[in-house]
Amino acid sequence: MQGLATCRVLQMEEQNSPEESVYPRDWISHKKPRVRFDLAGYTLSTPEPQPLPDVIRYIHALSEKQVTLLERIGQYSHADEIKFERLAEEWERATIFLSSLTKIVLHPAYQRIIGMGPAAIPLILREMKKKPGHWLWALDALTNGESPASGSQNLMEATEAWLRWGESRGYLNTGEAR
Amino acid sequence: MGRISRLFKHRRSAMNARQYLPDELLALSLFPNLDGVFRKTSEFDPLYNCLAWALGITWAWFSHETRLAGYYWPAGVPREWTVPAIQKIFAFHGYVEETANRDFEPGFEKIAFFVDSNNEPQHFAKQIANGKWSSKLGQHIDIEHENLECLENGDYGNVTLLLKRKAAGSI
């Protein structure tokens, strides 16, 4: 597009006709043409506007509606993953120095993760597989009190029990659980 | 001191400054008074908290929450995160005598209770054999620090209670 605009200015300079040029006389000596792209109308703001090729108009529209398109074609899981990662990172950063479990699980980001509903279960289990964490409260709330970790003596045992449960329910691919 | 020498002084300070590990920098971000008076003594570990570490335990996270498996709370102790309840836990381990003395006393081990403005326990530190203090920073690292003041006046509150017992092997 810039190349087309430059060609247009060069043509006008060759004509050497100020009354036909849309540029002031002092702009003729400038190397950059004063051309502005009107993307809303997909035309060049010149005396003889040239419409943009269809491919550029398509790319422009896609960049504005990308997230909406993702929702329309049903890629909810991707949006959930992004949301979970942001909340989990916020929660971990805010609670890493706390020793009271009550304070850890009552953090707003943690509660918003629980608010994501069952969609958060596989995301939590994948996070627990990377490293143990205080996700037991969330899993207990999201699974209506299922307690595959009952009898566990410590967090590691409870984590492993929940990962085995996740594999048996199909939340984790076979082999992902420890 | 002239302008040039003042600039050189800052460069010298930067070169002599201790190089902190990333985990230590994270601790410093919340507890800036730790600067120069602490060092990391373990890696990040969410499996035990400061209460467990003060008792010498690294295999359990102490929590009074009853609904969850995977957490530990001693039998016979009220299930509440309060100073009296936790003081009872330490009493089971011989920490019965209260003291106001923060200094190291040969033959004795001490525990410090950090309590916030709501009188809720936030942190526990233990004094070790070299006279310094050792703390588990939540889920983060263990550290060894020179004194208790470097963790006070922050998110952990202030020390309101010190307990001591005779060290193992002492007369």
Beta-strand percent range of chain A: under 5%
Q: Percent range for helical residues of chain A?
A: 40-55%
Our count of domains of chain B comes out at 1
Helix/strand-derived category of chain B reads: alpha+beta
* pLDDT averaged over residues of chain A: 71
Order of helices and strands of chain B: HHEHHEEEEEE
Annotation, overall tally of beta strands of chain A = 2
Radius of gyration of chain A: 29 Å
The total count of helices of chain A amounts to 9
The structural class of chain A is: mainly alpha
The largest interface is: A-B, 28 and 31 residues
Lateral arrangement of strands in the main beta sheet of chain A: 1-2
Distance between the termini of chain B: 57 Å
Rough outline of chain A:
globular
Whole-number average pLDDT of chain B? Answer: 88
Uncertain spans of chain B, ≥5 residues at pLDDT below 50? 7-16
Sheet with the most strands: spatial strand order of chain B: 1-6-5-4-3-7-2
Span of the ends, CA to CA of chain A: 56 Å
Can you walk through the features of this model?
The complex is a heterodimer of chains A (about 180) and B (about 170). Chain A is an all-alpha fold and about 180 residues long. Chain A has helices spanning about 1-15, 55-65, 65-70, 75-95, 100-105, 110-115, 120-130, 135-140, 155-170; strands at about 35-40, 45. Chain A has a two-stranded antiparallel ribbon. Mean pLDDT of chain A is about 70; it is low at about 1-20 and about 25-55. Chain B has one domain (about 5-165). In chain B, a hairpin with a 5-residue loop joins β4 and β5. In chain B, strands 1-6-5-4-3-7-2 form a seven-stranded antiparallel β-sheet. With about 170 residues, chain B is α+β, with helices and mostly antiparallel strands. Helix content of chain B is about 20%, strand content about 20%.
